[in-house]
Amino acid sequence: MRIYRLGEISEKVKKRILLRAELDVGRAVEIVKPILKDVEKNGDKAVLKYIKKFDRVDLRANELKVRKSEIDEAYRVIDRKLLKAIEHAARNIRKFHERQKSKEYFIEIEKGVVVGRRVIPLRTAGLYVPKGKAVYPSVMLMLGIPASVAGVKEIVACTSAQSNGELDPATLVASDIAGVHKVFRIGGAQAIAAMAYGTGTVPRVDVIAGPGSAYVSAAQRLVKLNTRVDFPAGPSEGMVMADRFADPRLVAADVLSEAEHGPESSGVLVTDSMGLALVVRKEFKRMLERLPEQRQRYVETNMKLYSCIIVTKSLKEAIDFVNDYAPEHLVINTRNPKGVVRKIENAGTICLGENTPITAGNFICGPNAILPTGRYARHYAGVSVDTFVKKPTVEYLSKQGLKGVSEDLLKLCEFEGFPAHSNAVKVRLNAEND
């Protein structure tokens, strides 16, 4: 793993590190565009074509939707210990997200003027659960549970089928536990298009959430005019900020845990200690050699592009770089993590102290693990109950209330040049005087 001194790094290299997989997403946009247009125009026919092309699975339209009997069978075959783990994670995720629910409110802001805000769940939500390098029942929980807690009436999920056309039993069980209503065996950009436009078999949804490859992330960007996508969650990334007091084995393990996701992923250490950096690099190499060959290849690829060690002159400079990078996952492994966290402005989720690996948050702690990547943490937080609701405002004026605000209201209308706005007020005031 390469070590860079922040003050000596070239702008070209720094840009590549900061942008990481967003570079891949940019290249994927042109590849994805014709797929989206094809699905929008041809619906199920196009979806089936791309499933056959990319997943090498030959399906008919009536086979896209998972049957209840398949979910029942999944419960019968799933490993009992795995089921227990899924149920444990689901309890924590649901408990955390229940606390996120917003309440409607109405207040009399002045005499006769009542205003408020409603909380309305979206009618339909589309969840994208990736499958390719592995299967991810945890992602199904992280998406399905907040949608269910929000009260969405129709929750649909898309995920790729295995080579035999079937879906992973653990993912199906997780969908049922999470409260998902319909599951479709569709992956990739064609799944995003199917949920954004509707296909005949797949309903058009009001919001799409879920992580995926550069192609999936590119598709999410392109369908934003058709459906809500709060943020496109791309390839996984993790950052550790550590000082000289950190255990290098723990630091290396956390950096590696996110880098192993795929060739487009990234694992970065930021530290003000060159001594720590050198030891971490050795530990990282040792741990990497223990991974399965495929995971090694993923890490070796992203080490050439995005994964690295950044050495700063001070802890303050390290904090500034973290905020500039805006990581999806951040571990603060310093002598005083609770003090440092107050200075972090941009991160999807923050793990405090040496006993809090990213792994715990990814699966079982409760907070959502579907988080903004590619510097989107500068503007967004992760998936939450709010992802699946809308909050329109409400206004009510009594006759007395309208009269009370009318003088200043008419002055503002006059100043901004809206005579018809003024008229809508005056006809009400005049009607009262008639």
Summarize it:
The protein is 48% helix and 15% strand. By secondary structure, it is an alpha/beta fold.
Could you give the count of β-strands? 15
| Category from helices, strands and their pairing | alpha/beta
CATH 4th-level superfamily of the largest domain? Nitrogenase molybdenum iron protein domain
Query: Average pLDDT value?
Result: 95
Which parts are unreliable, with pLDDT below 50 for 5 consecutive residues or more? Answer: none
* Integer-rounded radius of gyration: 25 Å
Largest sheet, described in full?
6 strands, parallel
Widest sheet: strand ordering: 1-11-10-9-12-13
Going by CATH, the architecture of the largest domain would be 3-Layer(aba) Sandwich
CATH topology of the largest domain: Rossmann fold
Helix content: 40-55%
Give me the number of helical elements. 17
Proportion of β residues?
5-15%
Ends: how far apart? 83 Å
> Which CATH first-tier class of the largest domain would you pick?
Alpha Beta
Overall tally of structural domains? 3
Shape: globular
Description of the molecule:
This protein has 434 residues and is an alpha/beta fold. It has three domains: 151 residues, Rossmann fold (3-Layer(aba) Sandwich), CATH 3.40.50; 198 residues, 3-Layer(aba) Sandwich (Rossmann fold); 35 residues. 48% of the residues lie in helices and 15% in strands. The chain is built from 17 helices and 15 strands. Strands 1-11-10-9-12-13 form a six-stranded parallel β-sheet, sandwiched between helices. A four-stranded parallel β-sheet has the order 7-6-5-8, with helices on both faces. A three-stranded antiparallel β-sheet has the order 2-3-15. Strand 9, helix 10 and strand 10 form a beta-alpha-beta unit. Helix 2 packs across helix 9. The radius of gyration is 25 Å and the shape is globular.
